[in-house]
Amino acid sequence: MFNKNKFKIFDAHLHTYGIFLRQKEDVIDYMDRFNVEKAIITTINRAKLHEKQKQNASKVEQVNKIQRFMDNFKKSLPEGQLSHQDVMDIANKAPDRFFKFFWFFPKVKPEEEEKNYKILEEHFKKGFCGVKIHSAYSLIKIPKDIIKLVSFMQDYDKNLILFIHSMPKTAFFSGVSSKNIATLAKK
User: Of the spans 66-75, 97-106, 163-172, which averages the highest pLDDT?
Assistant: First the structure.
């Protein structure tokens, strides 16, 4: 029989919000409930999450639901970077339990690039020790679309961690393979 007191868990993929939380439960209560000692924590696009869930539910009856889903999915992508105030607020309550990761969207307009990297740098100064990218949600190709990000991170601090939330190849996304990540590591 499972005895949670014998196990210490490190959650390597925790968001500040989501359906995993019970009603009126905060992230720290959730961690305590499952004996999670430490976690990598990042934000989530709360407004778009609810909007996207509503859209997905209504698409079941649509004839061209896959194409419409993709069109709406692309519309739900943020322009620029998400606020990470929620990450800081939660992590400040128990700083020894969290590793703050900045969810970075590398595909930005060229004229917005400097501003976005400045935002990332400011978060490093606030104690963020890594960067998360999501291959599907950002619609990026690895290594092509993240070379600049990796260079920026290495120039800033070689100890920063890059967390790649990869997705398999589907009809919608090119996916990320081990070979893609190995190619990135060689660069």
Answer: 97-106
Tokens of 43: 């934000």
CA atoms within 13 A on the CB side of 52: 17
Whether the pLDDT of residue 1 is over 50: the answer is no
pLDDT at 3: 58
CA 122/CA 115 separation, integer angstroms = 11
Nearest to 67 by CA among 180, 172, 182, 139: 172
Helix axis angle, 65-76 relative to 46-58, nearest 10°?
Answer: 170
CB 131 within 8 A of CB 120: yes
Q: Is 10 helix (H, G, I), strand (E, B) or coil?
A: strand
The candidate with the shortest Cα–Cα distance to 46, out of 13, 80, 86, 75, is 86
Q: Torsions phi, psi of 51, nearest 5?
A: -60, -45
Residue 186, both tokens: 């060689």
**pLDDT value at position 67?**
64
